[in-house]
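Backbone-to-sequence.
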């Protein structure tokens, strides 16, 4: 049987958009840090900049439940174009299987432009990450 999604109902991603937006923010901040360090490694970090580090992001992701972690991976795959929104259940199934092979946090942090991929994944479901309240 198919699930009963209507145009009026928001599609259930299995994770809150606020959580996805937070992960996007962390991933983008880490990417910015990597890019800026390549440009000027001697520059002193501004106060509060060290709040976004890999261990903080890793802990945040690892505290999510299995479905939420799978949703992050599946969204990144949708954002990359590996799956269409209509293939969400298939992407989620494969993302759950992928989770058995290692850390979701490590997987996402090693994925190039993961923050942008997650944002694109949300966009495929007509959700703009910039419009999500944090």
């Amino acid at each position: 049987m198919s699930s009963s999604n209507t145009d009026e109902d928001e599609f259930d991603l299995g994770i809150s958009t606020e959580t996805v937006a937070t992960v996007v923010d962390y991933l983008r901040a880490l990417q910015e840090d990597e890019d800026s360090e390549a440009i000027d490694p001697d520059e002193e970090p501004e106060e509060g900049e060290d709040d976004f580090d890999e261990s903080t992001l890793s802990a945040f992701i690892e505290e999510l439940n299995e479905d939420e972690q799978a949703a992050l991976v599946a969204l990144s795959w949708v954002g990359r174009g590996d799956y269409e929104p209509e293939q969400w259940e298939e992407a989620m199934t494969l993302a759950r299987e992928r989770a058995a092979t290692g850390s979701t946090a490590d997987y996402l942090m090693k994925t190039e432009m993961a923050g942008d991929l997650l944002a694109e994944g949300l966009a495929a479901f007509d959700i703009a990450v910039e419009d999500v309240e944090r």
